[in-house]
Amino acid sequence: MKIITKFSIIQKEIKKAKKQGKTVGFVPTMGALHQGHLSLIRIARRENDLVVVSIFVNPSQFGPKEDYTKYPRNLELDAELCGKEKTDIIFYPGAKEMYPCGYNTYVTVERLSDTLCGKYRPGHFKGVATVVTKLLNIINPDIAYFGQKDAQQAVIIKKLVGDLNMPAKIKIMPTLREKDGLALSSRNVYLNPAERKDAPVLSQALDLAKGLVKRGVKDTTKIVDAMKHLIKKKKTAKIDYISIVGLENLEPLRKITGSCLIAEAVWIGRTRLIDNIIIGVN
Amino acid sequence: MKIITKFSIIQKEIKKAKKQGKTVGFVPTMGALHQGHLSLIRIARRENDLVVVSIFVNPSQFGPKEDYTKYPRNLELDAELCGKEKTDIIFYPGAKEMYPCGYNTYVTVERLSDTLCGKYRPGHFKGVATVVTKLLNIINPDIAYFGQKDAQQAVIIKKLVGDLNMPAKIKIMPTLREKDGLALSSRNVYLNPAERKDAPVLSQALDLAKGLVKRGVKDTTKIVDAMKHLIKKKKTAKIDYISIVGLENLEPLRKITGSCLIAEAVWIGRTRLIDNIIIGVN
């Protein structure tokens, strides 16, 4: 396994592999790898000749008051995990490599970036769209893999790849969870024991919603209210939003219909967690 | 020579050619081809195995009061000219092919897009950056060719290709001119005989500036004033701007130094013309 920090060098490696007819699978990450990431690397390994994992904590997607500096970083452990999953190349650029002095170009996916988490994290998805465009241009993968846990990110990336006519195929893989339902996230390490005990309420609220839909409840306000009621019972929890939206356009729904995304962002203490489920109704 | 209207089809053609080890040269145009375009196609022909010319009047780079609908279009003549220059493929997409319903993704090159023509044509360079990103993704050329006549566009495209880590090489070729100095432009057809007679004043003003610099004048205000004085003698002329800026950052200069761009936009009657020269000073 190689660790490469320069985009010009990895571009040459990829070009060489492509000339040999190899397919390239790509898993972009911010490091602090957990089983969710590893499940993406595993499927990339099964489906491609060359597997590239990028580890880059992207400054342009963090707000000024967010956790950019304290975001967990551990290259050694990450590299060990990638090695176990038979990753071929880790791309590990520095911030100056990705955003050199005078950097000026940004990609925005309008409308889709302003709703849900975009309302609470202005500029976040501009940073995500920009870095993903850059990484896809550098790695030029046949398939890039993302997790469903970041549902809005997944929708935005699929949209930008289609809109900008990028050649990569985007695959979104299911959220992995702890036994008690908590969605795997690099930010879970921030939780203290009391918060960790409260945190599964995000997935419990989604299960509640799923149950209500199963029993025929269609009114999204009723469902959201029931979820809020459940979450508010936890002392450490503070809701940013709970929304039920169309799966592709992320527009709010009054009635459950077609494919819906139920998405939520909840502060557990000083840690902001997100979770979601997709519900299909005929 | 093939004319292809669907991006999925041309992407397949290009992929096939690349698999055969062919290099791809690309000349993006809005049609209404003149000798300036043809000179780009000629050099693309010399330097590449496969030559692709795109013809697309890009709606997203025209303002609501600009000449999108009346911009000259003549596919038959353009195709004949491309054929004579041994173009392999013309990519001729419709507006719905490039911007399907629900299109949402835009590329912006900040700072560089807000100066010079960007001040007078808000949104113009966002449209240019977006369509060029899309076209480069679709055609995936080894080299793309642009004209120096659109100097700000050239700077912005080089910047975005670098910033977004796109693999294409960008070559900027010299402006071609009529015998009387008028820079070739598809918009020259708008000029009536009296306007056509006044139009060379743009290049005359640039020549004047060049002469002043040669004689040791360094003060950019003096140079711009002399240019303005000359242009204002023409009845049909109305200046949008004359600016002397750094060649890479497009920032205004008080003194001529290093590589400067002298750029101007002047209305001749109801036609907005642009022209520029690069001056290198040690």
Would you kindly provide a brief summary of this structure?
Chain A is an alpha/beta fold.
Q: Please give the order of strands in the largest beta sheet of chain A.
A: 1-4-3-2-6-7
CATH architecture of the largest domain in chain A: 3-Layer(aba) Sandwich
Biggest protein-protein contact in the assembly = A-B, 27 and 27 residues
Major sheet of chain A, described briefly? 6 strands, parallel
Distance between the termini of chain A: 47 Å
| Structural class computed from helices and strand pairing of chain A | alpha/beta
Total strands of chain A: the figure is: 10
Task: Find the CATH superfamily of the largest domain in chain A.
Answer: HUPs
Any idea what the radius of gyration of chain A is? 19 Å
- Helix and strand element order of chain A: EHEHEHEHEHHEHEHHHEEE
Percent range for β-strand residues of chain A: 15-25%
Overall mean pLDDT of chain A stands at 97
| Helical run tally of chain A | 10
Oligomeric state of the chains present here: homodimer
The CATH topology of the largest domain in chain A corresponds to: Rossmann fold
Helix share, percent of chain A: 25-40%
Shape of chain A: globular
CATH top-level class of the largest domain in chain A: Alpha Beta
Low-pLDDT stretches of chain A are none
User: How many structural domains can be distinguished in the coordinates of chain A?
Assistant: 2
Q: Secondary structure elements and their pairing?
A:
The structure is a homodimer of 282-residue chains.
Chain A: E1 2-4, H1 7-19, E2 24-29, H2 35-47, E3 50-55, H3 75-84, E4 89-91, H4 95-98, E5 105-109, H5 117-120, H6 124-139, E6 143-147, H7 151-163, E7 169-173, H8 193-198, H9 201-214, H10 220-232, E8 237-246, E9 258-268, E10 271-281
Parallel strand pairs in A: 1-4, 2-3, 2-6, 3-4, 6-7
Antiparallel strand pairs in A: 8-9, 9-10
